[in-house]
Amino acid sequence: MPITKGAAKAHRQSERKKVFNIRRKSAMKDAEKAIAKAVAAGDEKKAKELLPTAYKAIDKAAKRGVIKDNTAARKKSRITARVKITAKK
């Protein structure tokens, strides 16, 4: 438990930020899972429609510091590659 007044405030702030961070991370994961499901089903059109939402979720997570920039770039690259492979089949 925090001892000083300042530490108590910092703890409250971190608890508030934690909620937003979890929300951003889960939105990002949900978008990735939706694309993975569309790719597994072979639905190229659906996967391409979901790409912008996934990009948006990943970029927001990176902007707010939930994930690092290189991690965001890697995730976007991999989901794009999966969609492209589906398009070729």
Could you describe the 3D structure shown?
This protein is mainly α. It has one domain: Ribosomal protein S20 (Methane Monooxygenase Hydroxylase, Chain G, domain 1), CATH 1.20.58. The chain is about 85% helix and about 0% strand. The protein is built from 3 helices and no strands. Helix 1 runs antiparallel to helix 2. The chain is elongated.
Structure summary:
With 89 residues, the chain is an all-alpha fold.
| Percent of residues in beta strands | under 5%
The beta-strand count equals 0
Number of domains: 1
Q: Uncertain segments of ≥5 residues (pLDDT<50)?
A: none
Shape: elongated
- Gyration radius, in Å: 17 Å
Element pattern in H and E = HHH
Mean pLDDT across every amino acid position:
93
> What is the count of DSSP helices, taking H or I runs of 4+ residues?
3
Walk me through the topology.
Elements: H1 5-41, H2 44-63, H3 69-88
Give descriptors for this structure.
0% strand, mainly alpha
